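Good morning,

Attaching, inline, the backbone tokens for the sequence recovery test we're adding to the shared suite. The designed sequence is right after.
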């Protein structure tokens, strides 16, 4: 009884797959895909590029707000002995500033630099 039910249920699925594959077999051959390419090109220019621009403006505004706040309220410098160790000087500049040194956020071993 169970095998008969399985056969009855399996038959429509297998025939519908064969029917669907025969109906759409021409799409696997060479055809005109210019409409799809044009659609994705328009989506890229009308949605993706403005979306990236809006995200860039948002990040810029938030960063300028953050830097203004940091200028007013810089964290206190605590000279921990395990931080900012210099076993040998950096090969650029005065040897004490890292490559991407920011005087507002990165303290030297003896404290923050004076920022105007």
């Amino acid at each position: 009884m169970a095998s008969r039910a399985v056969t009855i249920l399996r038959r429509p699925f297998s025939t519908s797959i064969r029917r669907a594959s025969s109906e759409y077999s021409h799409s696997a051959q060479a055809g005109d895909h210019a409409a799809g390419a044009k659609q994705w090109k328009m989506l890229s220019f009308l949605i993706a590029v403005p979306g990236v621009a809006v995200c860039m403006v948002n990040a810029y505004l938030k960063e300028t707000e953050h830097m203004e706040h940091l200028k007013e309220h810089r964290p206190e410098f605590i000279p921990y002995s395990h931080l900012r160790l210099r076993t040998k000087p950096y090969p650029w500049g005065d040897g004490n500033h890292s490559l991407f040194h920011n005087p507002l956020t990165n303290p030297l071993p003896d404290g923050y630099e004076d920022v105007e």
